[in-house]
Protein 1
Amino acid sequence: MAEPRTGTPPAETERVIAEAEAFTPAEALARVREAEVRDADRPGHREAMTINLGPQHPSTHGVLRLITQLDGEIVREIHPVIGYLHTGIEKQCENKTFWQAITLVTRMDYLSPFFNIHAYTLAVEKLLDLEVPPRAQYLRVIMSELNRISSHLVWLGTSGLELGAITIFFYSYREREKALDLFEMIAGERMNSRYFQVGGCSDDMPPGFETRLRAFLDEMPARIDEYEDLLSKNPIWLERTKGVGVLPAEQLIDLGVTGPALRAAGVDLDLRKRTPYSSYEHFDFQVPLGTSGDAYDRYLLRMREMRESVKIVEQALDGLPEGPHIADDRKVVLPPRSELATSMESLIHHFKLVTEGFAVPEGEAYVSVESPRGELGCYVVSDGGPKPYRCHMRDPSFVNLQALRPMAKGAYLADLIVMIGSLDGVMGGVDR
Amino acid sequence: MSEIGALIEAALPGAVVDEIEHRGELTIEIEPGKLREVAAYVKAPPLAFALLSGVTCADFPDEPGRFRVAYHVFSLETAGRLRLRAWAGALDPELPSVASVWATANWHEREVFDMFGVRFTDHPDLTRILMPLDWDGHPLRRDYPLGGEEVIFSDEV
């Protein structure tokens, strides 16, 4: 944290004299005012400057606007203005059926679509009291962890780019492309996938997928070594990230910060371990923790998380259970395509599901998953009909962004950019 | 009554209005006037729900309380979850703010205010957060239409 400028401003001296000499408080006040007016005319006079950062700024990770008050290079106050990317997804969900809403929720945090649908489908399944087959749970884990890697890679590339490290951007996007190719292969979409369905996954792994996935997993640890070679001991990187953006762990918890930003401060909160879902309890992995909670710790932690994700995907592939990839409940799950030409009943089910959707029992559920940014919670209220009565996403980007203001106060403006980057906010998730 | 509900009721008599356990989730409905006291109580030990995951709301136009605000809290020690719920009232929806208990409630409550028009008393900065400051109405209310909003051109503003 930067030290405030030292030295007594000229008016301060006069204020002390004025207060000492004046006979009444009113007179003291008048003399101080007079001194302040004179101070403004003095050469070298300082006053806070308000500048506007964003919403269209290459280093604000999307359309984040910050009204900043600066004293020279030091940030005195920031006022984040959000909502530029608000598209009313929660409102639209209320007007779509439960299975149509999957397509909408993936578009919230556009770097982690699998986590958005994961939280949403888990919440709907909880309301339906629907059992998800083990194979589907493992497939969900595989895709979620791949998504974690691809999301961290985007974070790494863009955060590096903001600090002038251009090579890392090309390196990380090279591997991210491969992850997106895998998404395309299994789900048909590179981004905004709706691979997870209520009850399981839309399809099993296609032929050749496992081979490509294993090739990716074999390659990835060496690639992470490469990134670390570029950055971990790079003097400029160390200079820019060490000691930047530190808040005490208690304050982070009070501000609701979760995910790598909290774990870097040493708090062991990973929902995959603490409240396991989708059979995460079957896998052996570490939860990396930091000590100082600065931007450098968050960087190291994300690097280690990628290595752990590779391990989880390998274990899930090795132990992938046999069986169906989606639950066998024809009132909720679309019948297999092959049956539509031969079975009248399947055709009726298909028609009913596509036109009317399925009814979900009355009630409310809150389920959260550990997204690359922290606790991603989905709160679904059903009135017993085929549409969500209310669907709310507790997005970690939205919550973590609140920590920016206490972090930035008193810091250098250049460090503010590092802080925004190290919190890894995605504006699609912030504004929804 | 659950253990948690009994503890709250013992510490703050009259605070617990109702209790629902559904699909393994415990919901405790709180008397709106006692919300802040209950929040401070569940945050401190022995319950120690230190992390407020979020504040959100659902609109039930036919209910007398109309706006049902839900607070999801999480305990870092036991990894347990609890939902506190309070009705804000139909005509003049208002609840005490819990931003003084959990700092994170600040933006969540601003969002609920923006989307539903529920006012939180003693909130440090209760302004719109996602919608433009001069927006009319509260979009997530059930009587707010989907689509059909006026298009504002830059030369008209």
Note: The first strand of chain A starts at residue 49 and ends at 53.
Protein 2
Amino acid sequence: MNFTQLFTYSSYVFGLFLSLTIMVLFLTWFERKALARFQMRMGPMRVGFHGTLQPIADAIKLISKEDILPAWADKLVYWFAPIIVFVPAFLVWVTIPFGKNMVLRSLDLGLFFIVAVSVLSILGLIMAGWGSANKYAVLGGLRAAGQLISYEIPLIMAILAIAILNQSLNLVEIVDSQVNIPNLFIQPLGLVLFFIAGLAELGRTPFDIHHAESEVVGGPFVEYSGAHWSVFYLSEYINTFTIGILTVLLFLGGWHWPNIPFSGNLQITLSVLVVLFKTMVVIGVIFWIRATYPRLRIDQLMSFGWKMLIPMAFINVTITASVLYYNLSLWILSIISIILLILCIFIIQRKFLINNEINTIKLISTKSLLDEKNEFELN
Amino acid sequence: MIGFLNGLLVTIKAGFRRPVTAQYPDPEKRLKIESRFMGFPSLTWDYQIEEPYCTGCMVCVRECPTECMSAKMKDNPLFSEGKSRRKKIIDEFEINLGRCILCGICVEVCNFDAIEMSHEHELSKRARNGNRFDLQQLLDLGIKFQSDTKWEPKQPEKNSGVPVKKINQNEDK
């Protein structure tokens, strides 16, 4: 590797890092503004025009804060956890295209790479929980591990169905094969599965039990402060952006649909803008969901994941594969997908999954206790 | 499930409504203060004679539940010149607004319409005793209140400071 190559690679990395950081700063501002509007507030207004400089002020404040190391903490694990959470979130972006011809490395196993790398961040969360020497943190880390591992499966299965449908694991090829019809219309069930599982992967609101303030006081991040906490924050928002852009690339047609009429540099710029716009819409939906729903209980989360999402994801893959194997029309696939989606809604509506005997705490009155005791004595 | 969708509908409806927040730090965007608003007490100014209404009778000082006031009277120089009806006039008056509980008893008790609850309510001060207001500061508050609300004394005939001609009074009797 000669010097010029090294220079180009490092400039790629620096540019990616800079653009992602700016994106994260924008996302924090956007989230606060969106949530404020959903609650009829104004959100940040004082720093800059409509609070646009607020994230920069926050960043300066976070960097200038003191880094606290708990006395009993496992030092090495504690300091390395933020890096292990951050690196996969950043590494995924090597192969994600954010516009026509705007990709660092168009890997043939792109989706596989994304899935394989993004799983690593679970390790970072467990390390953070363990290293903090804090019971809440350990509990949060374990919750994170359980949740992320079980929701990884429907996510991968939804991605797999897309890969089967478009006959490729390369993200650019997947986007290019959606020129006419985006996958949204062929696999609405896949979109829903991917989006819900993605929300759970991010730990966003209906699924944010691993950093639930009211239960585990911030989860694995309790003891972190200042710059190290901000690294967790950064990777969380980069992950949000990743899930948003993956939804756009896999299901909403990326920079195609509507097709951009121009050519050359203008087309590339417009394609980036189209992808960013669609991503912002998806992220807006994520914030909308955050403004609406309360947090799930852990048993609800697990039963929803294992009894609902995973079977549906497997059915989705099977149906996609068989439709393609028998060379049937894609319309059949979309009709079956919509039917399955309605079936999902019906199942949730009828509460088939919830076993009330197990999941609810019985109210035991003293009278019933006495009755039981009497019966026992009589016998 | 339909309940979930309903919830989404509720939030998106709220999202398109106007925010209810008033931007307090901008002086133009604050909420308007109602004229009946009760802020800290202030002393009123008699524009006819150009002196305060207060005669320093100490009623408010005695009635104050938190004992945050102190007052001192003096002989009115304008009375000896024949320009005012008030024999005595306030000399020193101090209210510790940090202790004041805005109960309004001083206003109710005053016989001379001399003390009034003003619209002043923002009293953070940098100095340690910055919210001990002396006579001049209280009068400033009062003058601001009077101009804001076009204040009139409740008993204008009894409390006006215009000197009465004694000869005319005797003739009437």
Note: The mean pLDDT of chain B is 85.
